[in-house]
Amino acid sequence: xxxxxxxxxxxxxxxxxxxxxxxxxxxxxxxxxxxxxxxxxxxxxxxxxxxxxxxxxxxxxxxxxxxxxxxxxxxxxxxxxxxxxxxxxxxxxxxxxxxxxxxxxxxxxxxxxxxxxxxxxxxxxxxxxxxxxxxxxxxxxxxxxxxxxxxxxxxxxxxxxxxxxxxxxxxxxxxxxxxxxxxxxxxxxxxxxxxxxxxxxxxxxxxxxxxxxxxxxxxxxxxxxxxxxxxxxxxxxxxxxxxxxxxxxxxxxxxxxxxxxxxxxxxxxxxxxxxxxxxxxxxxxxxxxxxxxxxxxxxxxxxxxxxxxxxxxxxxxxxxxxxxxxxxxxxxxxxxxxxxxxxxxxxxxxxxxxxxxxxxxxxxxxxxxxxxxxxxxxxxxxxxxxxxxxxxxxxxxxxxxxxxxxxxxxxxxxxxxxxxxxxxxxxxxxxxxxxxxxxxxxxxxxxxxxxxxxxxxxxxxxxxxxxxxxxxxxxxxxxxxxxxxxxxxxxxxxxxxxxxxxxxxxxxxxxxxxx
Length: 515
Known about the structure:
Radius of gyration: 28 Å
Structural class: alpha+beta
CATH architecture of the largest domain: Orthogonal Bundle
Helix content: 40-55%
Shape: elongated
Number of helices: 20
Distance between the termini: 48 Å
CATH topology of the largest domain: GROEL, domain 1
Mean pLDDT: 88
């Protein structure tokens, strides 16, 4: 009997050892970004083996660039990447929330609460909190809303020039684009060293005309977009070795020459294609005054097609009649190829409105960080339009944690301990921002909590410059609710995954890596 008890004790110790090892790894990753949170957060310097330096305040950049080997720690980094892809901002908050949930959940397990009960409680607590966050959101009805500019200003870390650029780009793109699925305002941000800040209505392509003999400037271009190469249809080498195949090859070349003639007769002055351009087509277009850009990325091609109102076609689409070809063309007011920057600007297309936000600085290091800031601000503005806003500064999370604490009192069973882990985790963002601002977190969190209860409003929070408690919503300290929503949702998911791990086993090498 004693032997079986000892074996059970040993197994339990091993499970706790694995859990605490994962907790420590997660805590180490979280500590790398905690100091950047909030208006008083500082920057982090990343240095690689060659001595190259990145100085940034951006959580996802820090996490993706830092060297991490521990599997649980890498899971935490994946949460930042997922948050970035989903809403484009809030990666530091997501990381800190996940770390806090894991640490608090592990503490309950150490007390003897079964892992399954802790996880069930975390799941319920997170769901309650997500619902409350959505209920507390104030909608943004139009792009002239004064709070929207505040969102841009705060997300831009109080760089007024960057927030102004983002707001101008936002208004050029329009409300309908901002709420469209799979469309990202942050994709319009282009950081370039040595450039001046600028916003223009149009698209920037990172390719130049394939020949110096082609026009570098076009007024009112007619634009043909090919999701293909500007070349004859291909035929495989085996077929080419037969008489029938060779004849087909000659037919393809003749058809292609005829199609090029139709392109010129349709009035096309700019061709943008995803793949390469045939040498014969290059010479033909240069002679006809048609500018060709080739090897343009799919993303840029789609953005251009939408803006100029073109219908992208494959090379087989060139077999259309001239009138049919004219129907798929796009139109714009202006095209200019800049030899200095090796980029092409196409402005004021006749399709969907869009904008290009150029963010400049003197050096590559500085412009890189300014670009990251601008993308965060653009993502926050779009999230605010889509999902509304709440008071910032961590005060909403604190208010939700108070409500969750009251709700937990009515919950029976051990799941309540998991809910307590969510209550504690929700207080972590404001706690960390207070620490970064140089105040006593125990004192200030209690002041904010008391003010929220007395004023019966969740928007009472801390002014991190003065240390005084104020209504942050009235003061214009606001955040997009979607950033907080997805940060907490992702944090709950990764916390659940890590808390479930009871042992770590090294896999055998993959077959393709064996000698």
